[in-house]
Design the sequence.
């Protein structure tokens, strides 16, 4: 939010300077002693930076925005240090900073990986998977999901290795398969039944025993959605070399 505000302010100021110069100031500039054309430094910088700032503002606000994954709550789908692109327009076009939706485009689908603003602190972004849609009844018990009375298919992944001795499973959410981690089969975290109210979504991390998601923070209202995570464009954790094999990977 702070970065968006700074970008909007800089774009507006530079645009105002360029517009004022074009409308109110004479096109004839004063000539210096050397016969060279002199120009106000502020106007010169504004002319140079305004197109760049405006372009970045449009791309970042309405099309794609980059994010960095700060934790392991979405392992094995996303790793700490992944840099991802988030598709902003897929759930509607919103005004920057105000986050007010101006054009309806679409709604989240079950299984989408979504970035949203934390309701208790909108300056913080979270990323989780959409498990429950408006009106759904979600039951989470002993690491198994039941949605509207139907048990979600879950199978041990026979191919992928464990992640620090944490086994990997394949979960099928309405025909969309993705990997999850279950750390403690006999010790579940926040079992319970949840009903998703209208206009809200139930989010869960793929690292089921290490995720602060809707089991803790509650359902996420539509107004807090930022966009859908679609692709990894870089992975770099600390001072290590980038993990080249993750670059360009589609987020399932």
Sequence:
């Amino acid at each position: 939010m702070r970065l968006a505000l700074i970008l909007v302010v800089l774009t507006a100021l530079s645009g105002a300077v360029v517009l004022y110069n074009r409308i109110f100031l004479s096109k004839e500039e004063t000539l210096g002693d050397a016969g060279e054309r002199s120009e106000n430094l502020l106007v010169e910088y504004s002319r140079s930076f305004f197109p760049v700032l405006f372009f970045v503002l449009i791309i970042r606000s309405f099309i794609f925005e980059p994010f960095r994954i700060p934790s392991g709550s979405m392992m094995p789908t996303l790793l700490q240090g992944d840099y991802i692109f988030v598709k902003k327009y897929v759930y509607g076009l919103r005004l920057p900073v105000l986050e007010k939706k101006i054009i309806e485009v679409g709604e989240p689908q079950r299984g989408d990986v979504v970035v949203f603003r934390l309701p208790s602190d909108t300056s913080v972004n979270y990323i989780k998977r959409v498990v429950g849609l408006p009106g759904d009844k979600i039951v989470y018990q002993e690491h198994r999901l039941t949605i509207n009375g139907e048990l979600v298919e879950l199978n041990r992944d026979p191919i992928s290795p464990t992640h620090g001795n944490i086994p990997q499973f394949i979960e099928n959410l309405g025909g969309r398969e993705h990997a999850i981690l279950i750390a403690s089969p006999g010790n579940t975290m926040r079992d319970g039944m949840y009903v998703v109210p209208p206009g809200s979504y139930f989010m869960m991390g793929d690292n089921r025993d290490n995720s602060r998601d809707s089991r803790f923070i509650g359902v996420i209202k539509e107004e807090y959605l930022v966009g859908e995570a679609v692709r990894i464009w870089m992975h770099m954790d600390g001072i290590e070399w980038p993990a080249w094999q993750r670059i360009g990977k589609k987020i399932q």
Notes: Confidence is low (pLDDT under 50) at residues 30-38. Helices lie at 2-24, 41-63, 214-217. The radius of gyration is 23 Å.
